[in-house]
Design goal:
By secondary structure, the chain is α/β, with parallel strands linked by helices. The protein is 30% helix and 17% strand. The protein contains seven helices and eight strands; from the N terminus they run E-H-E-H-E-H-E-H-E-E-H-E-H-E-H. An eight-stranded parallel β-sheet has the order 1-8-7-6-5-4-3-2. Helix 2 runs parallel beside helix 3. The two termini are 17 Å apart. The structure holds D-xylitol-5-phosphate and zinc ion. The site of D-xylitol-5-phosphate (DX5) has 20 residues, from strand 2 and strand 8. The site of D-xylitol-5-phosphate has 20 residues, from strand 2 and strand 8.
Length: 250
C-alpha cells in the first residue's frame, strides 16, 4: 500500500522486518501533550526518531464538549516550515465552521484536512473543494456516530478516522467498543479497492498505546495517532516509539 506525502513521493510502506510478519501501521504523534514553547525541538526529535507524519488537533473552543482551544493556521504554518516538505502533515478539525475556513489550513501547508461529519452540512462540496485545492480530504466520526454517516462518501475520501475517545483532550482511555465500526470500514475499503476504487486510508485516534496498538492493527488500522503514549516524561519519543514498534513485531 502506498502513502503519498505532499511531494508525491512514497512514504515508507514496508516495515524493515516485514518478513517476520510485523504489522504495518504508520504512527503519527498528536502534539496536545507537548510543551508548546519547545515545539520546534519536539518536532526535530520526532523526525529524528523516524516519524514521517504529524497529526495536528485544532479545537476552536466551541465544538468539543470541554470547550478546549488549541491552535490554528499560524502555528501549523510554523510547524510546516520547521519539518519541511517531505513530512506528511494532517489537521484534525474539531471546529464548528470547517466549511468556511478550510482554505486557511490548506494555505498553512497541510497535506490532509480531516473534518468531523457531525458538523459539516455539505460533505461532497467540502471534499471537492479540498481536492480542487490539491489537498487530501479525510472524514472523522465521534464514537457515537455510526459508519453510515461516512460510507456514502467513501469513494471520494482519502482517509477515514475513527475516534476511540470523545474528542477534547489527550490522555483519555481507549474505547474497545470501536472494534465493530473499524472492521466495518476495513471491509468497505477493501471492497472498494478490490473494485478498482480509491485506497482510502483507515486511521484511529484516542488512547492508543503500546498495549493496544497490535489490537487495532488487527482490526485493519493503517495509521494510528499516538499522543500521550509518545510525548510524555516517561521516555524520549524514540524510546516510546520503539516500545510501540516492538508491540507490532517490527
Ligand atoms: C483528542 C485528539 C487526539 C488526542 C490523542 O481530541 O483528537 O488526537 O490528542 O491523544 P492520546 O493518544 O493521548 O489519547
Ligand atoms: Zn486528533
Amino acid at each position: 500500500m502506498m502513502y503519498l506525502n505532499s511531494t508525491g513521493q512514497g512514504l515508507r510502506t514496508e516495515s524493515p522486518s516485514l518478513n517476520t510478519g510485523a504489522l504495518l501501521v504508520i504512527i503519527t504523534p498528536s502534539i496536545l501533550t507537548a510543551n508548546y514553547c519547545e515545539l520546534g525541538a519536539t518536532m526535530d526529535e520526532a523526525i529524528a526518531a523516524g516519524i514521517e507524519w504529524i497529526h495536528l488537533d485544532v479545537m476552536d473552543g466551541n465544538w468539543v464538549i470541554n470547550r478546549t482551544i488549541t491552535f490554528g493556521p499560524a502555528l501549523i504554518k510554523s510547524i510546516r516550515e520547521r519539518v519541511g516538505p517531505d513530512v506528511f502533515v494532517d489537521c484534525h478539525l474539531m471546529v464548528t465552521n470547517a466549511e468556511e475556513n478550510w482554505q486557511q489550513y490548506v494555505d498553512a501547508g497541510v497535506d490532509l484536512v480531516i473534518f468531523h461529519v457531525e458538523v459539516v452540512d455539505d460533505i461532497p462540496a467540502l471534499i471537492n473543494n479540498l481536492h480542487s485545492s490539491g489537498c487530501q480530504a479525510g472524514a472523522v466520526l465521534n464514537p457515537a456516530t455510526p459508519a453510515s454517516a461516512i460510507l456514502p462518501h467513501l469513494a471520494n475520501l482519502d482517509l477515514v478516522l475513527v475516534m476511540s475517545v470523545v474528542p477534547g483532550k489527550g490522555g483519555q482511555s481507549f474505547m474497545e467498543e470501536m472494534e465493530g465500526k473499524t472492521r466495518e470500514f476495513r471491509a468497505a475499503i477493501d471492497a472498494q479497492i478490490a473494485a478498482g476504487g480509491r485506497a482510502t486510508k483507515l486511521m484511529i485516534d484516542g488512547g492508543i498505546k503500546a498495549h493496544n496498538i497490535a489490537q487495532v492493527a488487527d482490526w485493519g488500522i493503517e495509521v494510528a495517532v499516538v499522543g500521550s503514549g509518545l510525548i510524555n516524561d516517561k521516555g524520549t519519543i524514540a524510546e516510546n516509539l520503539a516500545e510501540i514498534k516492538q508491540a507490532l513485531g517490527a
